[in-house]
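Quick one:
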Amino acid sequence: MQRLVIDTNLFVSALLSREGAPARVIDAWRARKFLVITSEAAILEVERVLRDLAASGKYRLSDDAIDSVVTLLKKDAVLVSGQMEAKGAIPEDPDDEKFLSIALEGEAKVIISGDRHLLKLARFRDITIQTAREFIDSFLSDASE
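Output:
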């Protein structure tokens, strides 16, 4: 089964809008079409960002919706430590390197992201970095073959 890493911004986008590619990626994961690899640090980041957005009042995010995403990650994702070496790969935003570390440790071949620093990289070692739309388009075409 394909193993991939989903960046924080994709979870945020999927929760803010049930339409579009990010939500389709999460729906495919919930349908067990692939495995998601993550770390405790990445889960904490998802939770922090969602709670900050909810507290801002700009978006309508309930505590239940946020808890649901965090629980889904803790129960259904494969957890790794995220400590493999990727230092220096993204000098503009070293915090994004955690997703590279997670992918390396979890032997994921794809990172799905909307983050410009990760997308600019496009590839890291043997890991492809794609937008949600690119992944859905390639995933659906691969699934139909």
